[in-house]
Amino acid sequence: MSRRIHPSVAGAQPFQLAERDPEAPLFESAEGQERLQAVLSRYPTKQAALLPLLGYANELHGWVSKQDMESIAERLDLTPAYVWSVASFYTMYNKHPIGRHFIQVCTNISCHLNGAQRVLERFLEETGTRPGETSEDGRYTVIEAECLGACGFATAVQINDEYHENVTPERVSQILAGLDGNGS
Amino acid sequence: MAYPYRDDRETTTVLSRHMGEPEARTLSGWLERGGYEALGTALEMEPDEITEIVKESGLRGRGGAGFPTGMKWGFMPKENGRAHYLCCNADESEPGAFKDREIMRWTPHLMIEGCLIAARAIRAGHVYIYVRGEFFPVVRVLNQAVVEAYEAGYIGRSVLGSGWSCDITVHLGAGAYIAGEETGLMSSLMGGRAEPWMKPPFPAARGIFGAPTTVNNVETLASVPGIVANGSAWYRQWGSDESPGTKLWCCSGHLVKPGNYELELGVPLSEIIYDVCGGAPDGKRVRAVIPGGSSTPFLTADELDCETTYEGMQAAGSSLGTASPIVMDESTCLLSAMRRIAQFYAHESCGQCVQCREGTEWIAKILRRIEDGDGEMKDIDTLYDLCEQLTGRTICVLADSVVFPLRSSLDKFRDEYESHIQQDACTAT
Questions:
Q1: Is B157 found in the same domain as B82?
Q2: In the predicted model, is pLDDT for residue B7 greater than 80?
Q3: Is A141 exposed, middle or buried (0-12, 13-18, 19+ CB in 10 A)?
Q4: B3-30 average pLDDT score
Q5: Helices A172-181 and A116-127 meet at what angle, rounded to 10?
Q6: Residues 6+ apart with CB under 8 A from B139
Q7: Which residue of chain A comes nearest to B173, CA vs CA?
Q8: Which residues in chain A have Cβ-Cβ distances shorter than 8 Å to B101?
Q9: Is the model's pLDDT at A182 over the cut of 80?
Q10: The domain spanning residue B170 has which CATH number?
Q11: How far is CA B398 from the centre of its chain?
């Protein structure tokens, strides 16, 4: 986190990470200020910084809270209602906390043809969750995703910021074991 | 995995030539491969000369619509001293398409070079690369390349000492298909919901931040350095008069060798599916193909001998789209496949236009009902009626995009619908 981020890419940092700190201040820190200023420097309007900053909140906290939206609204001279109207349009900003491993299984056409439904079911079975719900131990949230843009490598699964391709039901337990191996 | 797959037609590897070579991602590796030489050439040219070469090359937009790129650039105002913008559309999200991510993750500098040359041609001082949010592994590679190029003076103030300045900013989307539509992209980039807007005004007159803007697809821009370095005649050695050049194909579904292939435009579709991709696995027969990504009309197995040019695919009753054939073998329930496609468009409708917001949802629900065995024969008429209601009545073409596969599947595979409705049984084998 301490590495200085070039302004040209400050608004394009991966924002679904396993490492999160839900309690970290958004802008009341040197890093938060640096990110805010770097993003603002790239656009002629403050409003254009909205998506990058929603992404930053998601990156830092794992989700975007009402408080985050208010804080962003204040920095960009927007109303909280406007920020909510935009945040709610985009599926990737989590509107509530999610499990440490956020598992998104593509079930769109090319994956559908290659058995994605069974992959999704296996992930749900093995994690003991229902779609969108977080497991009791806080480890997993599994959702059905729209096309992930990896159609030639069906079934595509995204776990936090990583892609897993050519996933079959048989590979699911191995993939989950690999995640736990990274510690939680 | 050997990735991307290599076709033996070496002559057509223009865009994909250095894919699979990790060193090509770095600036030094890219320079060793002749990178940024075309930028040097472009810096010695006047903006309109660059546009002219691209016009002569016949390059057409690779995002699906196939609009001539040079002509699009020509719409931009010629005056200096006012902000102009280039948006690189890297929001690849058409189901079936996965080519832009390959360009960005293997050869990010090729795209950056294309962005810079295009920016010079349209007199833009700032390029926004709008990358779809899910592409985190890709954006890491791209970000690294942009920063390296900045630090070496290829981007920023007085590019390579030429006196011409251009910034590049990478911008991440957040999961909205409609942000790939050019006006939706611009709405999103300015910090709004990705809602498309009516044209006119066209982006070249009024785009982002009220300024003249051009939106080009990743593959389009990645094609530009080769054209500027080698000339328009070089590019026209491939393809047809109306559809020159090469194209990255994204082949998915039921195939022995799915993946990306770069091919000259015009290769028969059947050759791509059977010879290049090995046909359907396990000796099964192909039942249907959606040739250009999920928003294009279905072709039956008997209709695959078409020429894969923009005009050839149109003559065959479909569309080249993003050149992303989704192949379905004889075991495929086409009703279920169509339902899944419709579900996607219902999910992705931005909700501005009633026909689209309600219509896409209706289509998905009716198809689901038929799939569940509760369909009635009149549902077929209702679906045809919805095709009428959803065509050409909305701000953007998302509604039309679901009609193309739906209407063609009703026309060509009506027995599938009737079998589900009357016997609760699929015609797939």
A1: yes
A2: no
A3: buried
A4: 79
A5: 50
A6: A12, A14, B104, B131, B170, B172
A7: A51
A8: 149-150
A9: no
A10: 3.40.50.11540
A11: 14
pLDDT at B6 over 80: no
Helix (H) and strand (E) counts in chain B: 17, 9
Q: Do B252 and A15 touch (CB under 8 A)?
A: no
Query: Cβ of A8 and B133 within 8 Å?
Result: no
Interface test with B, best of A51, A75, A77, A98 (most B CBs within 10 A): A51
CB contact under 8 A, B146 and A8: yes
CB pairs A-B closer than 8 Å:
179
Domain shared by B127 and B253, yes or no? no
B244 and B227 Cβ atoms separated by less than 8 Å: no
Residue B305, in any domain of the structure? yes
Residue-wise pLDDT tens digits, A86-128: 999 999 999 999 999 999 999 999 999 999 999 999 999 999 9
Q: Say if residue B76 is in the same domain as residue B166.
A: yes
Question: Nearest residue of A to residue B143 by CA position?
Answer: A9
- Count of domains for chain B: 3
Average pLDDT, whole number, for chain B? 95
Domain that holds residue B39: 10-235
CATH code of residue B284: 3.10.20.600
Neighbours of B412 (CB within 10 A): 18
Average pLDDT, integer, range B354-377: 97
Nearest-neighbour CA in chain A from B120: distance (Å): 19
pLDDT score, position A10:
98
What confidence tens digit (pLDDT) does each residue in B96-109 have? 999 999 999 999 99
Asked whether residue B84 is domain-assigned, the answer is yes
**Does B200 sit behind a cis peptide bond, omega within 30 degrees of 0 on the bond before it?**
yes
Distance from CA of B55 to the nearest CA of A (A): 30
Question: How far is the C-alpha of B166 from the C-alpha of A8, rounded, in Å?
Answer: 12
CATH architecture of A7-87: Orthogonal Bundle (1.10)
How does pLDDT run across A22-66, given as a tens digit for each residue?
A: 999 999 999 999 999 999 999 999 999 999 999 999 999 999 999
Distance (Å, rounded) from C-alpha B204 to C-alpha B73? 8
> How many distinct helices (H) and strands (E) make up chain A?
7, 4
Please answer yes or no on whether A8 and B95 come within 8 Å at the CB atom: no
Whether A152 sits inside 8 A of B134 (CB atoms) is: no
A158, B171: Cβ pair inside 8 Å? no
Q: How many angstroms separate the CA of residue A109 from the nearest CA in chain B?
A: 6
